[in-house]
Amino acid sequence: MKAAFFRQHGGLDVLEYGDLAEPVVGPDEVLVRVHAVALNHLDLFVREGLPGLKLAMPHVGGSDIAGEVVAWGDDVTGWSEGDHVVVNPSIWCGRCELCIAGEESLCEQYGIIGEHVSGGGAEYVALPARNLRRIPSDFPWEQAAAVPLVWMTAWRALIGQGQLRAGQSVLILGAGGGVASAAIQIARYAGATVYAASRSDEKLEHARQLGADHLLRSDGEFSREIWARTNKRGVDVVLENVGAATWKQSVRSIAKGGRLVTYGATTGPIVEIDIRHLFWRQYAIIGSTMANNREFETVMRLVFDERRFQPLVDRVFALSEIRAAHEYLASGEQFGKVVLVP
Is residue 254 part of a domain? Predict the structure, then answer.
């Protein structure tokens, strides 16, 4: 089968497009013909190499997979050839106390398809049957691939961890990213007032079209803008994924008793906290990673079955254009997802 892969960590030059053996289906697995796979910044980090991450080579990236069922193992029931599916990119054991409690993303053995094991950047992929979610047959493949990772991340960060509710306010940084564009729509669905921040006026205009109430430049003193627009109150929730470059201003933007939810650190993971402000203003700093299975199913139902949200696709590349797709994603020019089609 044709696949996009790398044999060692490094720059764009390590990416290859060529032939790999078709995966062998295990007894609890389903073979999926991939029709579209979306990229995430995670794909760039994995290709470059992450501390402590040891991969079997060659490695196929791609966490966000949409395709159709082709075959299945002896222990699998309930699927038919041609069923349209998306993939829950989470890996969990199902046996530890956290999995039993329904918090799969806190599993001691937690991982992500496309990061810890090979993903969907190929014509076929074999996956555990429990990771598949049936979708309507009329849902476009490219849009379907744009959904799983970013929408489950945004839902858990805002609703599960951030406890965002109607009448509250939220600041969403990096408004051009996949998680942020999903978060804007989720926040509006929740009945919150949305402040969207970006370094790009074009991306801010896109954010406005998605429903953002207030637009801010993130390369300026956005915390001052938040204070001015909220009469020195701040916002109830700050959704933070930038890290070192924005951390101080993000903290300054939190209202008393509010929450900062962090799910990334694209500009660096080391930040400073003045604990006097923390205990005096009584805000909470909360981490969030992916979603548990209940949250995944909730937001997938809202996207695919009820059509409440609009998954955004910025640009589609052929799988053979893997280097160009990585380069484009790294440029930060996109609004929405970059998708590959085998």
Answer: yes
The reported pTM is 0.95
Query: Do 259 and 325 fall within a single domain?
Result: no
User: How does DSSP classify residue 23?
Assistant: P
In this structure, are residues 4 and 121 in contact, taking their beta carbons and an 8 Å threshold? yes
Do 63 and 40 meet the contact criterion of CB atoms below 8 Å apart? yes
Cβ–Cβ under 8 Å, residues 290 and 152 = yes
Q: Which residue has the tokens 């008393």?
A: 256
Regarding whether 164 and 45 lie in a shared domain, the answer is: no
Asked if residue 109 and residue 245 are part of one domain, the reply reads no
Nearest CA to 303 out of 184, 167, 185 is that of 185
Long-range contacts (CB closer than 8 Å, 24 or more residues apart) made by 76-80: 76/27, 76/28, 76/29, 76/30, 76/129, 78/129, 79/30, 79/129, 79/132
DSSP for 167-182? T-EEEES-TTSHHHHH
* Residue 244 backbone phi and psi in degrees, to 5: -55, -40
Residue 96 lies in domain: 2-147+311-341
- pLDDT of 309 over the 90 cut: yes
Looking at residue 105, its pLDDT comes to 97
DSSP track, 262-288: E---TT-S-----HHHHHHHT-EEEE-
Same domain assignment for residues 107 and 25: yes
**Are 329 and 216 contained in the same domain?**
no
The answer to whether 267 and 243 have CB atoms below 8 angstroms apart is yes
User: Facing residues of 33 across strands?
Assistant: 68, 124
91 within a domain of the structure (yes/no): yes
Q: Is the pLDDT of residue 306 over 90?
A: yes
Give residue 332's pLDDT.
86
Query: Which residues are bridge partners to 259 per DSSP?
Result: 237, 284
Q: Which H, E and C letters describe 24-57, residue by residue?
A: CCCCCEEEEEEEEEECCHHHHHHHHCCCCCCCCC
Q: Does 91 lie in the same domain as 16?
A: yes
- pLDDT-based confidence at residue 176 (cuts at 50, 70, 90): confident
